[in-house]
Amino acid sequence: MKASIYVHVPFCASKCAYCDFESYAGKLAYADEYIARVLDEAKRAKTEYGAFGVPSVFIGGGTPSLLSKEQIGRILGGLSDLFAFDKEIEITMEANPGTVDGEKLSYIRKAGVNRISFGAQAAQDVILSSLERIHKWVDVEEAVSKAQDAGIDNINVDLMYALPGQTMDDFVSSVQKALDLNIRHLSMYSLILEEGTKLFERAERGEVTIPGDDESVSMQERAIEEIEKRCMKRYEISNYAYPGYECRHNIVYWTRKNYLGLGSGAHSLMNEARFFNPCFSSYMNGEGFGEREMISEYERMEETIMLETRMTRGLDMEAFSKAFGNERAQRVLKEADEFIKAGFAEKNGSFLSFTREGMNVQNALIVKLLEKL
Ligand code: SF4
After folding, report:
1. Which residues line ligand 1 (CB under 6 A)?
2. Residue 289: what pLDDT?
3. What are the pLDDT digits (tens) for 260-294?
4. Which protein residue has the closest C-alpha to ligand 1 atom 8?
5. CATH 3.30.390.50 is held by the domain 296-373
6. Which atom belonging to ligand 1 lies closest to the Cα atom of 14?
């Protein structure tokens, strides 16, 4: 059996204005105790599933780079003692610029981290400060360069668009500056205003204006032109990489392979059972995995369509037909013919994929496909 592992690290230096993730400022003092609980949880998983093979580990957050180098080493050392890490394992750590130095990066590289994802968000300090990020753009440049010096060349930078006060030129310039850093992977996410965040409240009070849907799509389109000029390829709705640098861990999610989520709020999908952990305070009180929910065949089929069509390679119709029957596959293909005629989809061999225009309206297309099943 194989399963990827996600480790959630919920500590942050401060809370960003748009963030509704499972993350907390001012709780870093609990890190040692938290890591002990994560490793206990991993031991329990080993008792249940055995010492399974691990193709990828993703340490996400929160801000995992706030942990000390020894704490990060302890997580990875503990997991590799329990499970069978693949020889070519991909180990990603999320990091905030300004929270890493050369020494920490060299140490974690030796501990196994071979991919870093930096949350940069924008190249304009005025925008970063309005989002209440703790870093400036110069910190991104320094962090990426130090990671490269430490021997980690597989680097992702996260950017956001449709931000308050952000112009098209701002966003294109952010993309250009990120690509100038000689990174291998770029993720771009549109801002989603989440209720309960400071930014949501500011927008409600009319203090900030967020670019509308059309503007947001235009921003993404312009950015894609810049990315393609540098021969980086889109491989998922929000993700772009040079060939061979696609994030293997995220592909596990989109292809519905097994993943075990450790730590507060982490989700798991193991042998078609889904379960998730409670939030930080309950987790620290010893509450473990929540109830297991077995996924029905219909849900599996829905998820397969929703997740695989996020990727530019598309939905593998041969595999779909084997898993869910030829009759359903034919119904999907019949509906897809309409999308193909409208320029929203294409078929390459066994794969049905959405074109760039189709990706812009992915949700609506999926609803139509699901209606036919
Ligand atoms: S660093 Fe990330 S997880 Fe932490 S508060 Fe900011 S957006 Fe949320």
Report:
1. 12, 15-16, 19, 21, 23, 61-63, 96, 119
2. 66
3. 999 999 999 999 999 999 999 999 998 776 678 99
4. 19
5. no
6. 5
